[in-house]
Design goal:
By secondary structure, this protein is α/β, with parallel strands linked by helices. The chain has 2 domains: about 120 residues, NAD(P)-binding Rossmann-like Domain (Rossmann fold); about 170 residues, 2-Layer Sandwich (Dihydrodipicolinate Reductase, domain 2), CATH 3.30.360.10. About 35% of the residues lie in helices and about 25% in strands. The chain contains 9 helices and 15 strands. A 9-stranded mixed sheet has the order 14-13-12-11-7-10-9-8-15. It has a 6-stranded parallel sheet with strand order 3-2-1-4-5-6, with helices on both faces. Helix 1 links the parallel strand 1 and strand 2. It is globular and about 60 Å long.
């Protein structure tokens, strides 16, 4: 029986996921949902898929849902997918914009046994996989200094500026936070956030465009995360990891390993390694096949979101906060 896939959003992400799944799943039936009439007209002429402007017109079941719209629509689409008994959902980050929405989605995904995943693409990058392997054998990591040099401030003046609850912590810093938790296999217990909009204070962007987040872990490890939307650099994920007897520096000039103050290795992995990003979707689908679509609660996904919401709250209250991972 052919697999049926519904994709929300005819933007670049939706079309990219469509191309990957079209090759991965043989004879799949695709349906796109997008209210944009111009995009619908283009899609109907160029894609082998059904195109509708609202999912309420559909009275059928689907094996997969992919949510690729701007994030202010994610929570309502997710709830709709769950209510329509779609058990396998891949959603672009962030999959919601409030802690209240997060708790509702958490309850629903567990109640109805929904396999949910999101696009934390840095996990697919070769250099970060190598750093993950290095950290597994060097457990004396004591400090991580990471910067997301976004450098795409011109993208801030659309929905990112207009959406009330959207924060660049949810839209950008979340990638670095997830990367740190993945590399360390740990979650922080406290967070402290500071921010400003000095770089863009004369523009139409009225939210904060720079964030500095300090995370502390139970074993004493400290991680600093910055998100810089106006970095005046190329788009880059910079990270430095300090172990007892060694350090790894990954920056625009390359990646180096130092042991006892001496550089011993360079170019230990590929970056940005965009070819591997498609594996995020294919790995998710292949995992579902291997487990025979058995439900697995994705607690990591919800913990990363709770760290971000705690960081946002810390910025508002201007104080250090304990991170509450409990299901409310």
């Amino acid at each position: 029986m052919n697999k049926k896939v519904i994709i929300y959003g005819l933007g670049r992400r939706g079309l990219t996921h469509f191309a990957i799944l079209n090759q991965l799943i043989k004879n799949a039936e695709f349906v796109f949902v997008d209210p944009d009439k111009k995009l619908n007209f283009f899609a109907k002429r160029n894609l082998k898929a059904r195109i509708v402007n609202r999912d309420k017109k559909l009275n059928e079941s689907f094996d997969y849902a992919l949510v690729c719209t701007p994030p202010m629509f994610h929570a309502s689409i997710l709830e709709n997918c769950i209510n329509n008994k779609i058990n396998n959902i891949f959603v672009e980050k962030p999959f919601c914009l409030s802690l209240k929405q997060l708790n509702i989605i958490d309850i629903l995904t567990k109640k109805f046994k929904i396999n949910i995943e999101s696009n934390y693409v840095l996990r697919t990058t070769d250099i970060f996989k190598k750093i993950l392997g290095y950290t597994k054998y060097n457990k004396d990591l004591y400090f991580i200094d990471a910067d997301y040099l976004w450098g795409r401030y011109k993208k801030l003046f659309g929905w990112r500026n207009k959406t009330k609850d959207f924060s660049l912590i949810l839209g950008g810093a979340i990638h670095i936070i997830d990367l740190i938790c993945w590399i360390t296999n740990k979650y922080p217990i406290t967070v402290s956030t500071s921010s400003n909009n000095i770089a863009l204070n004369k523009s139409k962007f009225k939210k904060n465009s720079f964030f500095l987040i300090v995370l502390k872990f139970k074993n004493g490890l400290i991680a600093k995360v910055s998100f810089n939307s106006n970095s005046n650099t190329k788009h880059f994920h910079q990270i430095k990891l300090y172990y007892k007897n060694s350090s790894i520096f990954h920056g625009p000039q390359g990646t180096d390993i130092f042991v006892n103050s001496k550089k011993i290795k360079t170019k230990i992995g590929k970056y940005p390694d965009k070819k591997n990003r498609k594996n995020l979707i294919s790995d998710y689908v292949e995992k579902l096949y291997k487990t025979k679509f058995r439900y697995v609660y994705n607690k990591r996904l919800f913990k990363i979101m709770k760290i971000c919401f705690a960081a946002i709250e810390s910025d508002k209250k201007k104080k250090l906060l304990k991170i509450n991972y409990a299901r409310n």
